[in-house]
Amino acid sequence: MTSASPGRPTSFEIVVRGDLSEALVAVLAALRLRVETEGPVSLRGAFRDRAELMGALQALEECGVELLEVTPSAETEAEAS
Asked: CA torsion sign, 35 to 39 to 41 to 45?
């Protein structure tokens, strides 16, 4: 992950192609879903560690969602909770 302080979540933006079902959004309840009017779906969330991030990415992959990009976000911890 990035150089976050120990014990502090690191925020990431996950950009995917396609529509997300309500069931998938429920599975990924820790993420805030932002759907742009044009283009890809953007998910933002704070992850405690690499394993938590990888778990979310694996859940997306298992549901057939195409990942386009995963990047650290400049979002603050207060915004992420």
From this structure: negative
Radius of gyration of the chain (CA): 12
Residue with tokens 């502090």: 8
Dump the DSSP string for the chain. Answer: --SPPTTS-EEEEEEEES---HHHHHHTTTSEEEE-SSS-EEEEEEESSHHHHHHHHHHHHHTTPEEEEEEE----HHHH-
> Each residue of 8-43: pLDDT tens digit?
889 999 998 877 777 777 777 656 666 665 778 888
pLDDT in tens, 41-56: 888 888 889 998 998 8
How many Cβ atoms are within 10 Å of 12's Cβ, its own excluded? 22
